[in-house]
Automatic annotation (TrEMBL):
Species of origin: Myroides profundi
TM spans (from-to): none
Lineage: Bacteria, Pseudomonadati, Bacteroidota, Flavobacteriia, Flavobacteriales
Gene (name only): mraZ
Coiled-coil segments: none
Pfam families reported for this sequence: MraZ
Key word Transcription present: yes
PROSITE patterns for this protein: SPOVT_ABRB (PS51740)
Compartments reported by the entry: Cytoplasm, Nucleoid
Domain of life: Bacteria
Protein name: Transcriptional regulator MraZ
Length: 151
């Protein structure tokens, strides 16, 4: 199930973010909670619905922990991972270490990434989208041209 949309929000001094109602309606298994973690590639956070996290953990759990590369990957992938919930007031609490990692100030953006959400500082998010030397058309061709659309 895909989550759709980009949502601008504000974070308070305690690290609480009011999750937009239109986003909350899309989030699967809201009562099951979520996992909040550092992104692998970007200075942002990832909000994983618990079912999606469990699917990923079943894959990662099959890695041989006695392989040095696997061990290093697992350690870094799991760094800063937090169980989080959306409270009765519709707020999500982001821990200070994750706020610091993502350089989140007052304004942030929830951005859909298929089955998870990314959480960005608004200025960093906009800067990522405005890169001048980046050819999205070329990237789209490289990534999507080998996918079969016959299914």
């Amino acid at each position: 199930m895909a989550i759709i949309g980009t949502y601008e929000c504000k974070i308070d001094a305690k690290g609480r973010v009011l999750v937009p109602a239109s986003l909350k309606k899309q989030l699967p298994g809201i009562g099951d909670g979520f996992v909040l973690k550092r992104s692998v590639f970007e200075s942002c956070l990832e909000l994983w619905p618990m079912a999606e996290w469990d699917r990923m953990m079943s894959k990662i759990g099959k890695l041989n922990p006695f392989d040095k590369k696997n061990d290093a990957f697992i350690r870094r992938f799991m760094a800063g991972v937090k169980n989080v919930e959306i409270d009765d007031a519709g707020r999500l609490l982001i821990a200070k270490d994750l706020i610091d990692f993502a350089q989140i100030s007052k304004d942030l953006v929830f951005s859909s990434k298929v089955n998870i959400m990314e959480i960005w500082d608004k200025k960093l998010y906009e800067a990522t989208l405005e890169v001048d030397d980046f050819d999205f058309g070329e990237l789209a061709q490289d990534v999507m041209s080998n996918i079969s659309f016959d299914e």
